[in-house]
UniProtKB/TrEMBL annotation:
<keyword id="KW-0406">Ion transport</keyword>
<keyword id="KW-0375">Hydrogen ion transport</keyword>
<dbReference type="Pfam" id="PF02874">
    <property type="entry name" value="ATP-synt_ab_N"/>
</dbReference>
<dbReference type="GO" id="GO:0005524">
    <property type="term" value="F:ATP binding"/>
</dbReference>
<dbReference type="Pfam" id="PF00006">
    <property type="entry name" value="ATP-synt_ab"/>
</dbReference>
<dbReference type="GO" id="GO:0016787">
    <property type="term" value="F:hydrolase activity"/>
</dbReference>
<dbReference type="InterPro" id="IPR004100">
    <property type="entry name" value="ATPase_F1/V1/A1_a/bsu_N"/>
</dbReference>
<dbReference type="GO" id="GO:0042777">
    <property type="term" value="P:proton motive force-driven plasma membrane ATP synthesis"/>
</dbReference>
<dbReference type="GO" id="GO:0046933">
    <property type="term" value="F:proton-transporting ATP synthase activity, rotational mechanism"/>
</dbReference>
<dbReference type="InterPro" id="IPR000194">
    <property type="entry name" value="ATPase_F1/V1/A1_a/bsu_nucl-bd"/>
</dbReference>
<feature type="domain" description="ATP synthase A/B type C-terminal">
    <location>
        <begin position="355"/>
        <end position="453"/>
    </location>
</feature>
<keyword id="KW-0813">Transport</keyword>
<protein>
    <recommendedName>
        <fullName>V-type ATP synthase beta chain</fullName>
    </recommendedName>
</protein>
<dbReference type="InterPro" id="IPR022879">
    <property type="entry name" value="V-ATPase_su_B/beta"/>
</dbReference>
<keyword id="KW-0066">ATP synthesis</keyword>
<keyword id="KW-0378">Hydrolase</keyword>
<comment type="function">
    <text>Produces ATP from ADP in the presence of a proton gradient across the membrane. The V-type beta chain is a regulatory subunit.</text>
</comment>
Length: 478
């Protein structure tokens, strides 16, 4: 028999405090009835002696210290799940908001997830094709990986997320079960509508489970949204054998909600006012990616975060980088030049890429073309810096070739608009770009590899260039 407690000790922001409660568990779900018989819900977030702190999902507006009736339900917050979640839209608390009725569930799961035994983890192998050349070729996304996107205010990370949702697939076996769980936290209403309309227009909504929390909704839902999304992903992966790609945007909004929530509890702040436990809190989300022995499904994560002041040393990207396995970095200068997606390939990397590419997974030439492309583009950046000092006219012929390569690399390889490219097409494009460079500058390739893959005639025909005027035309000379 559950007891109903009358009255509150204190109200602070989205948190209520009760005194005199007994036998209460951490994360226990709470039913709250206020004087006008309105029912709200919450969960226990802190217990100190007989004082219990409860976060209220719907907020505490209109609550008074008296005439509040609280009942502890004796279990943590759970979600009812089935395959019907695909094609549906939920709020941050995991409740349907698309007007299609409740989910008829087969399984009920704790939104906090269950710890994944490290011994039972399978090492991530095989890759997920995003259709983005810069990612698929140079920072390959591996199943079971967590690969964040570092963006900044004003960059096109929302558009990039949409393109990944529209075009991502299991590359080598397209018939395999594959779906996407998409969580948007703290977004504006027009951005939320943009996501929904884009997925519907692309006819991919039937393979997407969407969780939307707008900026006007309670911060408690913002904190719950990624947990509800990841719980859904775990069900689809480990109960229904799907390969699940989880895209979460914007983790900065989540962390700011965490900071506001921590302040409401009166906790001592850490760096830049964020709670000292933010590292472990983010870990509890990111570490829910992976694969398990004996299960054919997988959970792969792409968290997206906007770096405050474009500072990669800010606590949010800094801690995210410690936990995750690489990063995709967006560049404002590329965006200003009209390049989409504006991915800065040199600071971007995938630490698990080496184990998921090659003859058994992608193509045997994948690693060598990626290494040489990155080396050549790094040289282009050095030459660009030099040209700003001495002028392009004073560059050596070899350096001018790198200038030509870099400009074509940005306008043809990085820049692809809304086009989706197969990995094979991206690799072929990479070889054509490298074929424009003098062979003695391809220092990451052996003679045999140069003779096998470098084809200048094909490259010049592709870019509509000829050997006599290539450099002059690319550098804008007479």
């Amino acid at each position: 028999m559950s007891l109903e407690y009358v009255g509150l000790k204190a109200i602070k922001g989205p948190i209520i405090f009760l005194e005199g409660s007994k036998d209460i568990g951490y994360e226990e779900v709470v039913e709250i009835r206020i004087g006008n018989n309105e029912v709200r819900h919450g969960r226990v977030i802190e217990i100190s002696g007989d004082i219990v702190a409860v976060e209220v999902f719907e907020g505490t507006d209109g609550m008074m210290l008296k005439d509040v009736y609280t009942k502890f339900l004796g279990h943590p917050l759970r979600m009812g799940l089935s395959k019907e979640v695909l094609g549906r839209t939920f709020n941050g608390a995991g409740l349907p908001i698309d007007g299609l009725g409740p989910i008829f569930s087969n399984v009920s799961m704790d939104v906090n997830g269950e710890s994944m035994n490290p011994v039972s983890r399978r090492y991530p192998k095989n890759f997920i094709q995003t259709g983005i050349s810069s990612i698929d070729t140079l920072a390959t996304l591996i199943r079971g990986q967590k690969l964040p996107i570092f963006s900044a205010t004003g960059l096109t990370h929302n558009e990039l997320a949409v393109e990944i949702v529209k075009h991502a697939k299991i590359a080598e076996k397209e018939h395999e079960k594959f779906c996407i769980v998409f969580a948007a936290m703290g977004v504006k209403h027009d951005v939320a509508q943009y996501f929904k309309s884009q997925f519907e227009q692309a006819h991919v909504m039937d393979r997407v489970a969407m969780f939307l929390n707008t900026a006007s909704e309670p911060i408690v839902e913002r904190i719950l949204a990624p947990r509800a999304a990841l719980t859904t992903a775990e069900y689809l992966a480990f109960h229904e054998d799907y390969h699940v790609l989880v895209i979460m945007t914007d983790m900065t909004s989540y962390c700011e909600a965490l900071r506001e929530f921590s302040s409401s509890k009166g906790e001592i702040p850490g760096r830049k006012g964020y709670p000292g436990y933010m590292y472990s809190d983010l870990s509890s989300l990111y570490e829910r990616a992976g694969m398990i022995e004996g299960k054919s499904g997988s959970v792969t994560q792409i968290p997206i975060l906007t770096m405050p002041n474009n500072d990669i040393t800010h606590p949010i990207p800094d801690l995210t980088g410690y936990i995750t396995e690489g990063q995709i970095v967006l560049d404002g200068q590329l965006k200003q030049r009209g390049i989409f997606p504006p991915i800065s390939v040199l600071p971007s990397l995938s630490r698990l890429m080496k184990d998921g590419i090659g003859a058994d997974y992608t193509r045997k030439d994948h690693a060598i073309v990626a290494d040489q492309l990155l080396a050549a583009y790094a040289k282009y950046n050095e030459v660009t810096a030099l040209s700003q000092v001495i002028g392009e006219d004073e560059l050596s012929t070899s350096d001018q070739h790198f200038m030509m390569f870099g400009k074509l690399f940005e306008t043809h390889f990085i820049n692809q608009g809304e086009e989706s490219r197969r990995l094979g097409d991206s690799l072929d494009l990479g070889w054509d770009l490298l074929s424009l460079l003098p062979e003695d500058q391809l220092n990451r390739l052996s003679r045999d590899q140069i003779s096998q893959y470098i084809n200048k005639e094909k490259a010049y025909a592709r870019f509509e260039l000829n050997d006599n005027d290539t450099i002059e035309r690319m550098l804008g000379k007479n």
